[in-house]
Here is the input.
Amino acid sequence: MTGFMTSPRNSPGTVAVLDRAPTSTTFSRVLGIATLVGIGWLVVFGLFLSPNDRVQKTGVRIMYIHVPSAWLAYLAFGVTGVSSLAYLWKRTRSLAWDRLAGASAEVGVLFMGITLVSGSLWGRISWGTYWTWDARLTTTAFLFVTYIGYLAVRDLGGTHQQRAKRSAVLAVLAMLEVPLVHFSVTWWRPLHQNETVENGKLSGLMLFTLFVGLIAFTLLYVWLVLHRQRVLTLLDQVDDRGLDVAIAERRNESVPS
Amino acid sequence: MSTWRIARLVAAKDLRVEWRSRVVVNQVLPFAALVMVMFAFALDNTQLLTRVAPGLVWLATMFSLVVMVQRSFAVETADGALDALQVAGVRPGGIFLGKALALGAQLAVLQLVLLGAAIVLYRTELVAGGIVLLVTTYLAATTGLAFVGTLYGGLAAGAKGRETLLPLLMLPVVAPVLIGATRATEAALGTEGATPSDGWPWIGLLALFALVFGVGGTLAFGSLIDE
Here is the structure.
């Protein structure tokens, strides 16, 4: 886990290493290039090669952003939940899980935001309205707010262990809450909005473009989370070092000169 | 000492603090009544008010819940009382249940006030056939709200000076209660021709909610207040 997630060069404690600790490894550089290539493909297929929809015309192209970012946000929140459980389970307890949960939640909130914005725009084009109180939309909006709250709790301060425990419990509670919210809004608004682009109506090239989008966004997710959790590791190290420096300064003050 | 006995002692302590300070009676209840008046100002239509009264009652409950939870934990953090309880080895599950019990009792009083306000201000009429459903709704919803309030109150209490965090964390979580309790209350009051049988499925949701957060809270409370 730790060996894979963190760069081998930034072992904690030593000043010199910390000052120029990189967040990239050969693996993440290759991954970054693959991500760029994937996004380039998505642009070419999404904007130029894929055909217009019969009903929605060129508006259908929002799908290539909207669906992958929604998938990615759900994946990210899933990873946050699983790594929070891994932190809470004593045998796998490690701050690396906590930082992975945090990094994944940050990326998840970002892409959930993109999902909501692109979905509103697409809705405006295809349904004539930015928002409908449909169960799926409402649950998504709740997820968004819930994880904004989760990120706020991560920033509360205290020791790394306190932060990890508090936010892990919250993430697990969020996993319990989401089905409840989903049930309640589904009952509240039983009329489901039909899928705008129905199965089978997607042409082969559209489906292919969608898959390109899914792959490109998944690569992007892995790359972002990898880097973000490395930065979080460095931030934790800076915190620890700041404390050590402060303690050393206080000690020096008490030494008669 | 059994968890249940700890819970009773903590609840009695909280209610005694309230009995002597009267903060909820003198500040939170008037605030709730004020919210009901403000809704009337904003909507300015008696028929509309009667139609949406169940929703407004529960919305006012949610707002007052935030204030009540803040009060409930202000008592604990003021002199490090919560830390002292923990140092004394009092089981966190007992503290959780006790505080939830006291919060539930205060919420029940609040809801009587809000229902009274709806009857007086919004011309809400109680229906004899819906009384059982109404009482069950109030019991189930209050239990769930008390558990969630205590759980997230404990979480926010650990974060000194971050009271602003509580509504952000708690209001999304109580959304199922807002939806479920409002629908069930509408059914109990016969709003827009609803019948009590429309309301009972929502009771299931409210009960499930209370169960999940009751069990989850008893287990997780210790980790959340552990500073």
